[in-house]
């Protein structure tokens, strides 16, 4: 099934492959540095729908459909679906993918949901409970602003520490060795990468209350998970070509690097942040960078896996980060706890 390592990590004994994946994004994301790599872009950010929430549901539906198509499988071939989003009661998920009629585990890890869903999918396959699963998550700038901050019509000003929620959805089809062999035998290509380990994060709260500086709020959780990962796997930063956080942005990146240096780990040379990569901070006016469930998901599908496939990288540590706040907790003056889940993804 797998080997438990230390306090929070697992090394699967059975192979777990990312058979294929898909990324669907909005117009702003398509104009960014990674724009040409995404599988599908909406003509506008409504995606032909009447509301922002319906648009986000369509993002997920389209991403899952495209991922299944690229992997050469149908919904009937999938054992479980692990999915979530940022909206209350995960309505983007429940209204977006219900038509696939796949047994669903709804998950919520805020912007770390991509990592959480991939970790759960990996465990289900490594434990021989499934041959194939789908992991998907999404976010939408307008629906997230309405959910967590102010409706767009309010026209509020954003501080430089604020991030821009990515409009996008990333879907991943995971499979075991037999699924990978069948995929190649059917002429559907080869898997994109292999997941060889994972570290489950814990809630870390430094007492920060600024919801417009989520990078700083999430950085301590990322540092905690990274430190635990290095101890559990007996590795150092130089054992990875890249250590990739989800959406810390420029502010959170500096906090993370400083926190880990205090612990004796220097990740400056290896660190990359999806929120920094997905937008051009100078021309696109996104301040600290990108955020949201879709940020790390679409960057993993479109860019990170491509680098592994082409042999530019051999092993990366993918670490989506999440800020665990809600309108209620913010209005009651609560702090913003963070969480981060890590996955070791290797070239085949």
Task: Look at the structure and give the mean pLDDT.
Answer: 92
Main beta sheet: 13 strands, mixed
Q: Going by CATH, what is the homologous superfamily of the largest domain?
A: Stage V sporulation protein AD
Q: What is the CA-CA span between the terminal residues? A: 20 Å
Query: What's the helix-strand series?
Result: EEEHEHEHEHEHEEHEHEHEHEHEEHEE
Query: Which bin fits the share of residues in helices?
Result: 25-40%
From the alpha-carbon coordinates, what is the Rg to the nearest angstrom?
Answer: 18 Å
As a percent range, the share of strand residues is 15-25%
CATH level-1 class of the largest domain:
Alpha Beta
- The CATH topology name of the largest domain reads Peroxisomal Thiolase, Chain A, domain 1
Low-pLDDT residue spans: none
- Please identify, by name, the CATH architecture of the largest domain: 3-Layer(aba) Sandwich
Question: Could you please describe the fold and organization of this structure?
Answer:
The protein is of the alpha/beta class and 348 residues long. The protein folds into two domains: 13-185, Stage V sporulation protein AD (Peroxisomal Thiolase, Chain A, domain 1), CATH 3.40.47; 195-346, Stage V sporulation protein AD (Peroxisomal Thiolase, Chain A, domain 1, 3-Layer(aba) Sandwich). Helix content is 35%, strand content 22%. It has eleven helices and 17 strands. The chain has helices at residues 27-30, 52-71, 91-96, 113-126, 141-148, 177-185, 214-233, 249-262, 274-277, 293-309, 327-331; strands at residues 2-5, 9-12, 16-25, 40-41, 80-84, 104-106, 132-139, 164-165, 168-175, 193-199, 242-245, 271-273, 290-291, 315-319, 321-323, 338-340, 342-346. The two termini are 20 Å apart. The relative contact order is 0.19. The mean pLDDT is 92.
């Amino acid at each position: 099934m797998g080997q438990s390592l230390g306090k929070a990590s697992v090394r699967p004994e059975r192979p777990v492959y990312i058979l294929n994946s898909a990324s669907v994004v909005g117009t702003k994301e398509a104009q960014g540095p990674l724009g040409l790599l995404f599988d599908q872009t909406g003509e506008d950010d409504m995606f032909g729908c009447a509301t922002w929430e319906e648009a986000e549901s369509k993002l997920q539906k389209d991403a899952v459909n495209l991922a299944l198509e690229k992997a050469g499988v149908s919904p009937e071939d999938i054992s479980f679906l692990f999915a979530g989003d940022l909206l209350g009661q995960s309505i983007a998920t429940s209204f977006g993918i219900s038509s696939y009629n796949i047994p669903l585990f709804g998950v919520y890890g805020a912007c770390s949901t991509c990592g959480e869903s991939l970790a759960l999918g990996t465990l289900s396959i490594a434990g021989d409970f499934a041959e194939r699963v789908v992991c998907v998550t999404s976010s939408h700038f307008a629906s997230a602003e309405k959910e967590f901050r102010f409706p767009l019509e309010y026209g509020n000003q954003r501080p430089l520490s604020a991030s821009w929620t990515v409009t996008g959805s990333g879907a991943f089809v995971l499979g075991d060795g037999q699924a990978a062999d069948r995929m190649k035998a059917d002429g559907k290509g080869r898997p994109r990468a292999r997941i060889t380990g994972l570290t489950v994060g814990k809630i870390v709260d430094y007492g920060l209350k600024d919801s417009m500086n989520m990078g700083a709020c999430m950085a301590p959780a990322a540092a905690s998970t990274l430190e635990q990962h290095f101890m559990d796997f007996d590795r150092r930063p130089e054992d990875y070509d890249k250590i990739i956080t989800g959406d810390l942005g420029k502010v959170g990146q500096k906090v993370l690097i400083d926190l880990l240096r205090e612990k004796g780990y220097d990740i400056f040379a290896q660190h990359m942040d999806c929120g920094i990569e997905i937008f051009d901070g100078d021309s696109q006016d996104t301040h600290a960078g990108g955020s949201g469930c879709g940020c790390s998901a679409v960057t993993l599908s479109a860019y990170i896996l491509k680098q592994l496939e082409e042999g530019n990288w051999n092993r990366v540590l993918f670490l989506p980060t999440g800020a665990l706040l809600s309108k209620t907790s913010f209005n009651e003056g609560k702090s913003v706890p963070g969480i981060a889940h890590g996955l070791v993804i290797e070239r085949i």
